[in-house]
Amino acid sequence: xxxxxxxxxxxxxxxxxxxxxxxxxxxxxxxxxxxxxxxxxxxxxxxxxxxxxxxxxxxxxxxxxxxxxxxxxxxxxxxxxxxxxxxxxxxxxxxxxxxxxxxxxxxxxxxxxxxxxxxxxxxxxxxxxxxxxxxxxxxxxxxxxx
Length: 146
What we know:
The relative contact order is 0.25. With 146 residues, this protein is α+β, with helices and mostly antiparallel strands. It is globular, with a radius of gyration of 15 Å. The strands form two sheets. Strands 5-2-4-3-7 form a five-stranded antiparallel beta sheet, with no helix packed on it. Strands 1-6 form a two-stranded antiparallel ribbon. It is 19% helix and 20% strand.
């Protein structure tokens, strides 16, 4: 855990957050007030064509927002540490996404807005045809001993 925190603070983070560029308008996904987001909130967006498949295969689903182009899953803050999300996925810190009109399409049954990030990561990798990578791009990777 300490290694992750130090890595988070000292290394350059990927700038591929929601495809944002300087000057692009953003909005924060509004969580239902009855839900407790004590772990902070980030969001993972995927192309809409994967939405139903992902939702039907996840063991538990938190808040999900959708518009015509993307579906956004709420995950705990920092769910990008040591995970190399596929290029087709957008990771939005603070659940700040490009301005649009996403609607809440799934409200969780419990009092937490989160989708577990590891099962979501593995499913996003599977539907996009990408081999899961556990270290950020450009980071050091473990090498198996012969």
